[in-house]
Amino acid sequence: MELGKVYQDICVTALQVERCGDSFAVHFTFIAEGQPHEVRLSGVQQCDALGELFNAERLWLEAAEDPQQEFGRYLLGLSHESHTAFYFDRLLPCPSSAYGQEA
């Protein structure tokens, strides 16, 4: 997943959430424009609305506006009927996925 790119007409195919101390690690896969993508985030502070990923029509990744905040150096945005944002600390590299690509 590229910083600053908007992925449209997406379909999230899998979502996994793990507790890591006071935050969460999130791994999900999605298809956009016929291409599979794999994403791993660490330092996600709130996970209660992560299920909204399955309803998303658009996804994007951007640097948070306040780089000096303690948590959430990045923002994962999604839209469906409304806009939802998840702040996280790091975008992790993905090992080769089942699709044979890296994110």
List the helices and strands and how they pair.
Layout (H helix, E strand, L loop, with lengths): L5 E3 L2 E10 L2 E10 L2 E10 L13 E6 L10 E6 L3 E6 L1 E3 L11
Antiparallel strand pairs: 1-5, 2-3, 3-4, 4-8, 5-6, 6-7
The largest sheet is: 4 strands, antiparallel
How do the strands line up in the largest sheet? 1-5-6-7
Cα-atom radius of gyration: 13 Å
Low-confidence stretches: 97-103
- Written as H for each helix and E for each strand, in order along the chain, the element string is EEEEEEEE
What does this structure look like?
This protein has one domain. Helix content is 0%, strand content 52%. The protein has strands spanning 6-8, 11-20, 23-32, 35-44, 58-63, 74-79, 83-88, 90-92. The protein has a four-stranded antiparallel sheet, with no helix packed on it. Strands 2-3-4-8 form a four-stranded antiparallel sheet, with no helix packed on it. Strand 2 and strand 3 form a beta hairpin. It is globular, with a radius of gyration of 13 Å. Residues 97-103 have low confidence and may be disordered.
